[in-house]
Amino acid sequence: MIYLDNAATTRTAPEVVEAMLPFYTENYGNPSAVYSLGSAGKKAVNEARRTIAAAIGASQEEIYFTAGGTEADNWALKAAAESCRTKGRHIITTKIEHHAILHTCQYLEEKGYEVTYLDVDREGMVKVDKLKAAIRPDTILISVMAANNEIGTLEPVEEIGAIAREKGILFHTDAVQALGQIPLDVEALKVDMLSASAHKLNGPKGVGMLYIRGRTELLPLIHGGAQERRRRAGTENVPGIVGFGAAVRRAMERMEEKAEKERVLRDYLIKRIEEEIPCCRLNGHRERRLPGNVNFSFRFVEGEALVLTLGLKGICASSGSACTSGETDPSHVLRAIGLDDEEAGGSLRMTLSEENTREEIETAADRLKETVQKLREMNYRYKAFLKEMGKSDQ
Ligand code: PLP
């Protein structure tokens, strides 16, 4: 099996699992308990908090653990909207956000908020001047992702942060795909809130965090006990949080080396596809993109058929984002970058990790080439296209 779906999720690193295990078997006490079985958990949670805070240039009191990226995104948007509703009811986001943001924005629209969904260019970049122009006196929140999960484009978060700060507008970034992949510093980015998730960086599933800048007034999303400084109630997922901390420490130690390895493999795969498979288009920005992201559209091919056939050949990839697969609508991200139905429907995302080898990528390129060719041979529009071009597929 060749796993090329690391944007969907990653393999939990063995050292992460090892760090988590004692908190199931030995130190299983409730961190709120006063005896040592509980305080061991509390200590470990706080150590993870310190590690994660240091990784993004925050202080430990600014890190709030959640049950993943979706929860952090929901919290940031719903709570910011509610907390600022006397100041205004206008929110700015983009058309290429994850559904955790977009569906939350739709919910807020039903509650009487107004949302501007910014266009992006052909490469998936948010245009800062358009964002500036969208700001109104009643704008209370801007949410722009750090890196796109489908096409890998890195957004100009730092520039946007500077604008939001100058205007006194809360700024949130969904950094679920960015943490551990590219450097993130909440001071340099001038973000007030940042979401992240452990399972995208070789940590466990179902645990994430929301960074909330020092004095930001933000209501809790979940009410109950006093955990997470009364802002996110519920007994802490101690093993998950410990695993998240271990995963962040591991990712920070190897970030440059890992990114370089992935970039080399990514660029090799892109080159092979562009040289060997006709009628294809690289989606996303060529340079400003996540180190492991390869996203192509192939004309005369159905993305779903491509993914299924590659799956039968032992290659795990996705068409559109994993969270939307099962839905038949073309990806909203590919639509937003201006692809037509055919281009959007014929897309394939392959997201690499440092664990992939050159041989695996060579095999993946070979299998992809033969699969695209096979599927095209069954496509009547491809046959018509060849005829028109004066070629035969025989
Ligand atoms: N935001 C982005 C950009 C993502 O890619 C994902 C997951 O794919 C999420 C949010 C949701 O994170 P989680 O799976 O931890 O809920």
TrEMBL record:
InterPro entries per record: Aminotrans_V_dom, Aminotrans_V_PyrdxlP_BS, Cys_deSase_IscS, Cys_deSase_NifS_bac/arc, Cysteine_dSase, PyrdxlP-dep_Trfase, PyrdxlP-dep_Trfase_major, PyrdxlP-dep_Trfase_small
Cofactor requirement: pyridoxal 5'-phosphate
Assembly with partners or alone: Homodimer. Forms a heterotetramer with IscU, interacts with other sulfur acceptors.
Pathway membership: Cofactor biosynthesis; iron-sulfur cluster biosynthesis
Organism the protein comes from: Acetatifactor muris
Family of this protein: Belongs to the class-V pyridoxal-phosphate-dependent aminotransferase family. NifS/IscS subfamily.
Protein name from the UniProt record: Cysteine desulfurase IscS
EC number: 2.8.1.7
Gene: nifS_2
One Pfam family in the UniProt entry: Aminotran_5
Principal localisation: cytoplasm
Single GO biological process annotation from the record: [2Fe-2S] cluster assembly
